[in-house]
Amino acid sequence: MLLYCNEMPRKKILSEFDKNTLIQLPELEDEFIRIYSLSEQDISIIESNCRGKSNKLGFAVLLSYMRCPGIILPVDEYPTDKIIQFLSLQLNIPSEEWLKYGKRAQTRREHLSLIQSIYGYRMFNNQDYNYYFNYLMNISLQTDKGILIVQEFIKDIKKYKILQPSINTIENLCSEALMNAEKQIFDKLTFSLSITQKDILDNLLNSKEKSNVSYLNWLKQSPKSVNSKSLLIHIERLKFIKEINLHKDIGKDIHQNRLLKIAREGRQMTPQHLRDFEESRRYATLIAVLIETKASIIDEIIEMNDKIIGSLFKYAKNTQSQKMQESGKSMGKQLDIFLKIGHALLDAKETGEDPFSAVESVVSWEDLAKSISDTKDLTVKQNFDSLYFISDKYFTIKKYGAEFLKVLEIHSAPVAEDILKTVSILIDLYDGKLKKLPENIPSSFIRKRWEDLVFTENGINRKFYELCLFSELKNHLRSGDLWVKGSRQYKDFEDYLIPVKKFTEMRDKNTVPLDVVLNGEEFLSQRMRILSKKIQTVCKLIENNELPDSSIINDRIKIKPLENTVPEEAEILGKKIYGLLPLIKITDLLKEVDQWTNFTDEFIHLKSGNKVEDKNLLLTVILSDAINLGLRKMSEASPGTSYAKLSWLQAWHIRDDTYSLALAKIINKQTQHHFSSYWGEGKTSSSDGQRFATGSYAQRTGTINPKYGSSPGVQFYTHISDQYAPFHTKVINVGVRDATYVLDGLLYHESDLQIEEHYTDTAGFTDHVFALMQLLGFKFAPRIRDLNDKKLFIPEASTEYSALSEHIGGTINSKKIIQNWNEIVRLATSIKNGTVTASLIVKKIGSYPRQNGLAVALRELGKIERTLFMLDWYMSPELRRRVTAGLNKGEARNALARAVYFNRLGEVRERTFENQRYKASGLNLVTAAIVLWNTVYIEKVVEYLKEQGEEINEELLQYLSPLGWEHIHLTGDYVWNNQIKLKNGEFRPLRNS
To answer: Taking every annotated instance into account, which residue ranges of this chain make up the domain Tn3 transposase DDE (predicted)?
Structure first.
């Protein structure tokens, strides 16, 4: 036996569940058949090397286990009946023969040796251990998740037909590699530190002067409000970090997943815990926290400036509106005077009366002069352009402008060089190096609307020049023409994408993970042929008046509204079923769903990876998020629970990733449940934003959303499958179009759903999203409002499409697509590989000026896909019904979410965006649990009704919904009843049954 096999693992990195998966047989039938089917050569080898039926079957079983899961079947372990039966049929040998196999240990040893000799399998040895230690160290530099490292190890040894060593050996090897990788990361982070820097880092754990808050916790604080004072405090935090003068490339050679994990751990720990770390780990953790904190502060500074600039424009608009309202009475008075004068002059012309006398008969010359003067005041430009009033708030910008421009390391693309030059000029002005603006100031960024304000008869107006600069700075940072070193959200656009060299290699090796033709001309030719054919088809239908459920009135396509397709019988059946569902408290419902799914196992400790021991406590925290009660109030409503316990558990176990993994378990259970197939195949989905008002602190920092008016709020943007499973949710920035976030839910959910077609409302689409949906393999079907006002685009100018001439907006710029095709594919590949999130790129691309080649090319590609969709919409009532049904499911789920999220008037009152995300995730997880619970018990009711002799029309079951909640007690004390525990396969009794 090898020496290393006797060593105990240095660190437990696998749960019992993980260990079982390593020797788990394939679950999918197709995969099982593929792996365990014996070839003619296999059967020939068995026949020529084995005597007797039992030996032949035993040889086949040993061979099958070496193939998958890659182990030698232990002497005392019985193979699964499924494998025995499958191999027996192939060999035409009774399965009972296995019981006779292995009576002679020598025979079994000979077979094992023979299989290894013939098929090339071999045992794991010391040399392999040393090789894989280094191999797994490289993997461990990318992730610290034990199961992923182990899976990578097993995947690689299978390539070389190396049999799995013992679980103990595997865990020991991977644990050792993980610990050494961790040490290497710590060394990389700390190697450049001077003694002075170490002293500064240690001082971060001490309290600030005249405060009980440590320097580190002060750095981690979010802005208390959005104003100049808070922004300056945040700038002070950034300057503090910069003055530590860490190496400029520190952390860049460390995988971001590992760096983020270390930073998260450090952010959760108290100063005392950090002091107890050994030196290397302490300094490495503090540096990781500083790197992440610095990036967050930079982004928050930029976003605060954005909101302040936005508030200035809002003030200017409101001021103009107020002044217009105040001058309305005077304006009416002056108009009345000039109207009388006009009538008097017209009458004088008819009668020959002296016009001066006619005027005097209406108004005195003195009053007329005053009226002209008053009218002149009413017609000044301020009354017609709100921008004139923005200078009233100049000193808001002046308070922080100098520090803002100096503390951010701004870089620019050629198109924004004048902005960068202006930044340098303003910094010199603020520092007193310049007394006034130079005569030849950079001005290419000054839009026409600003010109009269900046360039006046008396020279350049500095106030408006600075305000214009800050306004354009905001716009160009959003678009990506300007970027900031150290930022996450506002870095160089190239840094978001796969490096050109790596992408070129992928393209040359044909490993680009997109199902698209890599040749741009060939791709475009295919899409154009489809587009041309489809337009001709629609034109022919219009000419023959054959568009289904549609008509042409005054060159406008009128689509017949869809009728309610839910039969009355389905509504009656639904009421009967819900009347029989058991009454249940939300606490009991969550515990029962956890029994089915073990979703609580996914909320592992951030540092140790251990599961939560007290599941009731965890469920209390989750429920607190879902019902919007808050931890303190929740502790009061949950007997035997303290705020301190809930707060600690939230800090160490509640994260975006743990919520996502837990949700996936519930979604997968819902998807696999037989009854959910009545509602769909799990291949289509819809998404919609649900607005929640913000109150208290959040209200003061909320941004106005044009979709919802002036009341501030946030949106929980949720994706729901056709089986009612809400598989992804995200808190989205108000004021940003929903379309920005559509792809995130399709790409980044953790469930097993394979979505093929997706629906949104009008706010969910842009041409860029249409293009990316096609490139990433999704069918996109938004319900577009005012469809007639959206133009179609054709391959080239043609008279063949005369029936649609009023609807054609132009031709596709094919040249622009082909010129930028390589970059379009690189962009889509970067999204697919997770190099950058889809929402970030969609926001950046959408903000690009129209002359940007990539943005224009992607928009042109989107025009093709949007036109194809619109033509399908005209022709297909089935598509229209499908989209409407999908969106209705999302809206119905929003009603359930609103009912669950009822505390504190349904307002989001969390101080941080992170806590807002937890609220959205908790709410989504609980609604998913309700959906699953309802699905299970609706099936039980249907079975009960059938047992009672009632005929159930199967066609009506598709109209049922698992979104009801009247039978669920959502309020009251939240008590976790440990005495009521159903055994596996047991369910609650139905009402009145």
So the answer is: 588-974
What does the DSSP assignment read for 337-372? HHHHHHHHHHHHHHHT--HHHHHHHHS-HHHHHHHH
What does the CA dihedral 841, 842, 843, 848 come to, rounded to 10 degrees?
90
In whole angstroms, give the CA distance from residue 986 to residue 588: 14
Structure tokens at 533: 């054919």
Token pair 């690189």 is at which residue? 826
Q: What distance in Å separates the CA atoms of residue 696 and residue 951, rounded to the nearest whole number?
A: 55
User: Which residues, other chains included, contact 149 with Cβ-Cβ below 8 Å and sequence gap of 6+?
Assistant: 13, 136, 139, 140, 143, 174, 177, 178
Tell how strand 482-484 and strand 410-412 pair up.
antiparallel
pLDDT per residue as tens digits for the range 539-568: 999 988 888 988 777 778 888 888 777 888
- Distance between first and last Cα of the chain: 62
Residue for token pair 């249907």: 942
Please name which of 10, 119, 128 lies closest in space to residue 64, comparing C-alpha atoms. 119
> Which is it for the CA torsion 456, 458, 463, 465, positive or negative?
positive
- The 3-state secondary structure of 187-223 reads HHHHCCCCHHHHHHHHHCCCECCCCCCEHHHHHHCCC
At residue 133, the 3 state secondary structure works out as helix
Residue type, 45: I
Residue entry with tokens 């970030």: 840
Query: Cβ(591)–Cβ(623) under 8 Å?
Result: no
Name the residue with tokens 């055994």: 983
If DSSP states are collapsed to H, E and C, what string results for 377-424? HHCCHHHCCHHHHHHHHHHHHHHHHHHHHHHCCEEECHHHHHHHHHHH
> What pLDDT, in 10s, does the model give residues 119-177?
999 999 999 999 999 999 999 998 888 888 999 999 999 999 999 999 999 999 999 99
DSSP string of 246-268, one letter each residue: --TTTTTTS-HHHHHHHHHHHHH
Q: How many residues does the chain have?
A: 993
Q: Provide φ and ψ at 7, rounded to 5°.
A: -75, 145
Would you place residue 700 in the very low, low, confident or very high pLDDT band (cuts 50, 70, 90)? very low
Contact (CB, 8 A) for 662 and 673: no
| CA distance linking residue 413 with residue 406, whole number of Å | 19
Q: What is the largest CA-CA distance in the chain?
A: 136
Residue type, 324: M
Spatial CA neighbour of 396 closest among 303, 459, 315: 315
Give the pair of three-digit tokens for residue 516.
């698209």
Q: How far is CA 360 from CA 337, 367, 587, in A?
A: 12, 10, 86
Q: Cα torsion at 371, 377, 379, 385 (round to 10°)?
A: -160
Predicted confidence band of residue 7 (pLDDT cuts 50, 70, 90): very low
Residue 83 amino acid letter: I
Residue given tokens 């009603």 in the structure block: 895
Owner of token pair 């036996």: 1
Helix H or strand E segment including 611: none
Angle, helices 821-832/500-508, rounded to nearest 10 degrees:
90
**Position 15, amino acid:** S
Closest CA to 901 of 916, 890, 887, 913: 916
DSSP state of 455: E
User: What's the rounded Cα separation, in Å, for the pair 920 and 901?
Assistant: 10
Residue with tokens 């975006």: 656
Cross-strand partners of 483: 411
Q: Which two structure tokens, joined as six digits, stand for 773?
A: 């949906």
Query: CA angle, 252 as apex, 247 and 255 as ends, to 5°?
Result: 145
Q: Are strands 684-693 and 757-760 parallel, antiparallel or unpaired?
A: parallel
List, for residues 188-224, the tens digit of each pLDDT value. Answer: 999 999 999 999 999 999 998 888 899 999 999 988 8
CA distance 192 to 182: 17
d(CA 969, CA 584): 6
The 8-class DSSP code of residue 411 comes to E
Torsion angle defined by CA atoms of residues 134, 138, 141 and 144, in that order, rounded to the nearest 10 degrees: -80
